[in-house]
Amino acid sequence: MRGRRPWSFAAFRHFDNRDGFPLLHDHCLVLNRVQRLDEDGEPVWGALDTGRLYRHVVAAGTLYTLAMTTEVCEELGLATVPREVTPGLRPVMEIAGVDSELIDWSSTRRHTRRSTGGCPASAPARAWPGGRRRRPAPRRRPRAR
User: What burial letters (b/e) apply to 16-50, b meaning 16+ CB within 10 Å?
Assistant: First the structure.
């Protein structure tokens, strides 16, 4: 079994959203290099399997949010409750006792999406021709061995 080493990451804590309303959240960057022990027990550096990490990004984000929420609630003596934001999708954990009207009042991004029929387009997104995509890489036949 290979030895395990901690990951290197940076977390940036934000206390409000783009419109200045309160919204405690973090952004995390994970270094794509990790140290492990080779067969001789010597430390070597290697790359993370980013494909596997990407496939599990929602689960990783959920675990991180759970840890942050647990820490905040324990420190402040609060509790969380699930709240259905979009029917049929997983619920969002909210601080128990906060009125839904207050939550909706501060949810400016959701209001913007509702009023525009989707996500508001940024200038670069508007400049991008609709439907244009990168061409797929040409498929090559495997060479005979």
Answer: eeeeeeeeeeeeeeeeeebeeeeeeeeeeeeeeee
Radius of gyration of the chain (CA): 22
Both tokens of residue 132? 């244009």
Q: How far apart are CA 33 and CA 12, in angstroms?
A: 20
**CA-CA distance, 7 to 3, in Å (whole number)?**
13
74 domain-assigned: yes
Residues spanned by the domain of 83? 9-115
Q: Which tens digits make up the pLDDT trace of 62-88?
A: 898 889 889 989 999 999 999 888 888
Give how many domains the chain has, as a whole number: 1
